[in-house]
Design brief:
By secondary structure, the chain is an alpha+beta fold. Helices cover 29% and strands 29% of the residues. The chain has helices spanning 2-15, 87-102, and strands at 20-23, 27-32, 35-42, 47-51, 65-66, 77-81. The radius of gyration is 12 Å and the shape is globular.
Length: 103
């Protein structure tokens, strides 16, 4: 899990310009212009990633699923990653979230 976190953080910081990374004990929040677009929650044997997506998200493998936004949290999709081979799929969805939030 630690290796997945490191690689994912590195890709997000390197490939998505002008974002802010907020690291907490068990989570990492990514923001653009002060607005959160992704949160990575570090669990014992997987990462749980909540993100914001608009209706035109491309997720052909159905790797993520809809969640109900709350008053405190407006993320509307969630995915989990346990295996580093899924990192490209996860990054692609995070990048779409960044672009959706940017608009």
């Amino acid at each position: 899990i630690k290796k997945i976190v490191e690689e994912l953080r590195e890709r997000i910081i390197k490939e998505i310009p002008g974002i802010n990374e907020v690291i907490d004990k068990r989570q990492i929040i990514y923001q653009n212009s002060g607005k959160d677009f992704c949160i990575i929650k570090i669990k014992k044997d997987y990462l749980e990633i909540d993100f914001v997506a608009n209706n035109i998200i491309e997720d052909p493998m159905e790797f993520s699923w809809k969640i109900k936004p709350t008053r405190k949290c407006y993320f509307n999709r969630r995915m989990q990653i346990k295996n580093i081979v899924d990192i490209d799929t996860v990054f692609g969805l995070i990048f779409q979230s960044y672009n959706a939030k940017k608009e």
